[in-house]
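Case study 2.
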Amino acid sequence: MSTIKVLCIHGVGHHPNGGAWQDDWEAALAQSSNRLGRQNELEVAYFLYDGIFANFDITPTGTLTAIAKLTASGIASGVGDMFAGPQNQPAAPRAARSVSDRVRWTAGMVVQWAEDQAMRAQLRLALEEHIKVLEPDIIFAHSLGSLIAYDTFRHKMELVKDRVFVSFGSQIGNPFVRSQFAGRIEPLSASYWYHLYNIHDDVLTTRIPIADKGFEQVMTPFDIDGMADHDATQYLAHENVTRSIWSDMVVGKRMRKKARAVRQEVRRGGNHDKRALIIGIDAYDNPSMRLEGCVNDAFLMSEVLQENGFESDNIRLLLDHRATAAEIWQRLEWLLEGTMDGQQRILCFSGHGAQLPDYGADETVDRVDECLVPFDFDWTHERAITDDRFQALYSQLPYGARFTAILDCCHSGGMTRSGGGRPRGLSPPDDIRHRTLKWDPEQAVWVSRKPPTANRDLTTRKAKEISYIGKSGQRRLMRATDLLTLKDEEFETRRETFGHMGPFLPIILQACQEEQLAYEYRHGVTSYGAFSYSLAQILRDRDNLPANLIDLEQRAIHRVKQIADNQVPQIVAPGPHYDKPLFSITDS
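Prediction:
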């Protein structure tokens, strides 16, 4: 019989020393560890921090301020997840929504932890002292406790070195929390980090998409009425905790390494260096929305990619009625999940784009999002491809990977132009448009009102290279703006402290400038997007390929101008990528 030293860090709520909750935790740990048929002696200790929070006068907030901060990412990690039905199903009507006291209390404490630097420093120091005295083999941290632990380890990596770390019921991946770490969650120097994730846990929890050999996300699904899906003991007793954590703890180093590698390979679905997802939608339900060249674009781009080293087995197409919001999200996960350094991922979208005004947690319109328009689009957040959910998939990619989005659509609205090509953008119906208007009684006219800007630094001259925020105040697609809430100076300080470059940002090939329209082009009797057709011609000129992205952009501008009036393509990318060819996967 071996002895394993365990340190437990509780979550939100009242956790007295010697309380029944400790008996429950220890029973759950024993249940999951003993399933293997071996009696492991667990020496369990606890880090209790309620007293530290009490010193800072924490009370459940009576307003929605904290909820708004933690649910700013809509259906990605907050309001949508808290109120949605089964996975990939629309959220419940707003009138039916309510926020439990537990969620309010958790949100209030998480926001207080994030914004009170003095308290965070005190928590880090106290946990450090516990670890040095107890010298645990494995650390289990629930909910808010996982944030305290991760924060401590990121400031002092040696504290977790040669130890196993287990986070569960955690808000670490929440965009608001990630923004506190300069927009990115990095691996730890732990011997291994397991993240237990329950898709039914509605207390502001999220996945953590880290691609690292020392990290593993373990799915621990359980569905209990009410808020019990956040219960620590249900996580700890889960059979998948036995199959992963305790199974690894009792075998030799070589077998443990092999078992982990096999599980990670299964989750990634293979180790493919190049993958592409191509979406083309012509046959929208509404006749006035229908296009002609998008499916042709999809096959054209598949041809070009296969001519440039992508195998047909690693290219997936979604066309017309199959390209619903749910199916697109599922394929995007396939495209990006498990991406490693040196691998290339490409998304091609031909269809409509739009701008979607949306409500915040306090039921007021607080943002306008650029979005891609799926087949079943209905001007709701649940059936639109917006960045607040998308950034959870791409922003954690390793910097040595290369993700390129080719978007043949526009976000400025549009209508059929008599005698010319059809624009690939939607103008909102009047009731949706009303969300961004206000009545000027003095002038007796309706005027536009810009949504509030969460971070003014995103509109500065320095930020305009990436165009985080549009001229009308809209949040631009694929810019990870949810993760950039800190002011520039503070962002840079934390980024340097944590040793990374901020969120991963993709290379974006856009069909047109922000306020322009993206048109279709008829080549003889065959319709294409003017941008897709021009791009394919450039990339098929094997004797004169563009030397880098700057060269590609200039050639695309020239070619598109020949077939589409007032449409100027644009390439947006992190600085180091501009000097590289489109299909380069050389590390930055």
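Confidence is low (pLDDT under 50) at residues 73-98, 415-419.
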